[in-house]
Amino acid sequence: MIKSELVQVLAAENPHLFVKDVEKIVGAIFDHISTALAEGDRVELRGFGAFSVKHREARVGRNPRTGDPVEIEEKWTPFFKAGKEMRERLNQEDVALAAAE
């Protein structure tokens, strides 16, 4: 699902809201999550999961085509860890799908 599809689903479920208002709400949520991560904060959405930032040290990698060593700079990367309720919900669906086959 992409952002525009999310907006359409939320707008359909909330007919009292205009689509442009739903776009602003979704955009604001994503902006706040991005800003918090950029500041080094952790964002936890109960029942869904937690977003955080992990530090990766500088290292020497390999060019897969030539095998030559390549210096890789240190960097910060976003990280998502699914919450317990999300994992349970996904695993219940896997069990239901397997039973249907």
TrEMBL record:
GO terms for molecular function: DNA binding; structural constituent of chromatin. GO terms for biological process: DNA recombination; regulation of DNA-templated transcription; regulation of translation. Pfam families: Bac_DNA_binding (PF00216). SUPFAM superfamilies: IHF-like DNA-binding proteins (SSF47729). GO terms for cellular component: chromosome; cytosol. The keyword Transcription applies. InterPro entries: Hist_DNA-bd, Histone-like_DNA-bd_CS, IHF-like_DNA-bd_dom_sf, IHF_beta. Keywords: DNA recombination, DNA-binding, Transcription, Transcription regulation, Translation regulation. Heterodimer of an alpha and a beta chain. PANTHER family: DNA-BINDING PROTEIN HU, INTEGRATION HOST FACTOR SUBUNIT BETA. This protein is one of the two subunits of integration host factor, a specific DNA-binding protein that functions in genetic recombination as well as in transcriptional and translational control. Belongs to the bacterial histone-like protein family. This is Integration host factor subunit beta. It comes from Parvularcula marina.
